Amino acid sequence: MIHGDQAKAGKPIHVTLNDTAIAVLNRQLGKHPKSVFSYKGNPITQVNTKAWYKALKRAGIDDFRWHDLRHTWASWLTQNGVPLNVIQEMGAWESAEMVRRYAHLAPAQFAMHASVVDHMLNGTNLTQPK
Prior knowledge:
Pfam families: Phage_integrase (PF00589). It comes from Nitrosomonas aestuarii. Residues 1-115 form the Tyr recombinase domain. One of its GO terms (molecular function) is DNA binding. Keywords: DNA integration, DNA recombination. The chain is mostly helical. It has 2 domains: 1-45, no CATH class; 63-130, no CATH class. The protein has 7 helices and 2 strands. The chain has helices at 19-28, 50-59, 68-79, 84-91, 96-99, 107-114, 116-121; strands spanning 38-39, 42-43. A two-stranded antiparallel ribbon has the order 1-2. Strand 1 and strand 2 form a beta hairpin. The N and C termini lie far apart (59 Å). The relative contact order is 0.07. The mean pLDDT is 86.
């Protein structure tokens, strides 16, 4: 849970962790007495640091911001059929408009949902040849 006083919109955000995230957190146990992530014994308090930019350079990544990780996460979910309203809730976006930016990434999902009507009409005279 991200408490409201730590969130951009001032509202608490429930965070559901997958098995991969839990495994990463478990690997951090015992590395620092108070903080989850640390570097050379010091807690990491910022993410846009020299270390971040050096890591991007080592990985050969240009023009990438910390916030792009959120965009990638939402894109992956969209491309794998997670409904936009679920992504909105998980990502704590205030408006559906913000999440709809990712809709273009899932045309196959829209076709699948559109075919629901085909299944409903199957067996009626509307689907029979004249």
